């Protein structure tokens, strides 16, 4: 090659390199601009949403605790792994001013990054669980202690104990990809297929579910629907029904929901008031599943899930109970409920009426006490309610 040809080749190469560098710089600027725009868009939504919330007559814990100072401190923060923003945390409460709480955690890191907002809401909801408090280690206690609350079957229609669990290494619903949903469903299905004895059953994926199976699960009141507007606003229903499924044992006394609101809802239930049998079944199931799948846990907050109302033990022990005399004396019912930290709901759960004097009554406290103590509060409270109903 001649000197001239070499010089030309070098010049062409230099020009190409320069052109590539200019293009790369332009692309980089464009990308940075895009990121900033996305950030600016998020801030804009936050500012306008927060302004509307402040002007509203909302009674939510979000409105109560999100001061201007906390808002300004948190509005530009994001979680390190998944980049969740304050908007991801509060958008359900910004859209639904009738929320009771109004915030969700899009990933486990949110509880730390946005702790200035989560901590006071957790303290308020969980009856004084302060930011300096630490949830005790898991302790199911002596599972033989609880008996049948209502051996004659006069009062308790059915008994149920459930807990929520998140799989370690995965974000919560709003940050899950479609692939992660599928991966988790496979992991959960294969884990549950290893259960034996009274827990042995079948896993039904929601994707591709036949009409017959669907109807059977509806008849059994097992089938969960796509999330309500509060969950929709929190982006918790993406890729529906991918990755969702239901497992139940042959006797229909043990149930697992996969990727409804939480990664796992583990439920033990049966007709009548035998809390002892229901509790033992749940404890055996959770211990068995935990050996196969590690759960997301925090030293201070206990077991972590999507909603801050469902942390610590995450245990909700409940009965459907007929107390017609107490139903006529609402003040007395509320008095006993307050004494034992019980939550009184209508027959079909929150925001519903008591049909035929039947209430759904459960433990309210889930944090700052052990699993055993949470269930014992409910056990003692229901025993007291039955005693009063008999005496009236």
TrEMBL record:
Coiled coil: none annotated. It holds the Pfam family ATP-gua_Ptrans. One of its GO terms (biological process) is phosphocreatine biosynthetic process. GO terms for molecular function: arginine kinase activity; ATP binding; creatine kinase activity. Keywords: ATP-binding, Kinase, Nucleotide-binding, Transferase. GO terms for cellular component: extracellular space. Residues 42-127 form the Phosphagen kinase N-terminal domain. The keyword ATP-binding applies. Residues 155-392 form the Phosphagen kinase C-terminal domain. Its EC number is 2.7.3.3. It comes from the Eukaryota. This is arginine kinase. The lineage of its organism: Eukaryota, Metazoa, Ecdysozoa, Arthropoda, Hexapoda.
